[in-house]
Amino acid sequence: MKHRSYTVRRSIAINAPRELVYPLLADFRSWRQWSPWDGRDANLKRSFSGSARGEGAVYAWAGNRLAGTGRMEITDAKPSHYLRIAFDSEGLHTGSCTTSFALAAHDDTCTVTWIVVGKRTMRLPFTNRVERNIGAELDQGLATLKRVAEWDS
């Protein structure tokens, strides 16, 4: 087995100001509204610690085989502009990665770019599956984030 790194990047334009979009990303409690992974286990156990939002906020979960267990911590944040999150999980997506969100304002529109960078021990074909599978999940999450943010604006 070889260690391979991967990067998956997706973007979406949201018809809402970034000041409205950013809190949906910076507060892990808001992720239930848009996260592509939240609906995998109706009995998911969630815990929140550290800061309420932004740098230092921590979210941990434990669930069924599809949800797995894991922890996310916002390690760097520039309000309304940028978030970096350390992500560790076991289950369907076992591994560690860094996920980040960059927000760019254009009048009353916000472009959100979601980037996932990781390194896993894997067989060679895995890299293509990461792009396809994780990319589809990021697309789904961003589309839902767009609906939630535009509904609120």
Q: Which structural class matches the secondary elements?
A: alpha+beta
* CATH fold label: Alpha-D-Glucose-1,6-Bisphosphate, Chain A, domain 4
Spatial strand arrangement across the major sheet: 1-7-6-5-4-3-2
Give the helix proportion (percent range): 10-25%
Described by the principal axes of the CA atoms, the overall outline is globular
Largest sheet: 7 strands, antiparallel
| Uncertain ranges | none
Termini separation comes to 48 Å
Provide structural commentary.
This protein has a single domain, classed as 2-Layer Sandwich (Alpha-D-Glucose-1,6-Bisphosphate, Chain A, domain 4), CATH 3.30.530.20. The mean pLDDT is about 90. It has about 150 residues and is α+β, with helices and mostly antiparallel strands. It has two helices and seven strands; from the N terminus they run βαββββββα. The protein has a seven-stranded antiparallel β-sheet with strand order 1-7-6-5-4-3-2.
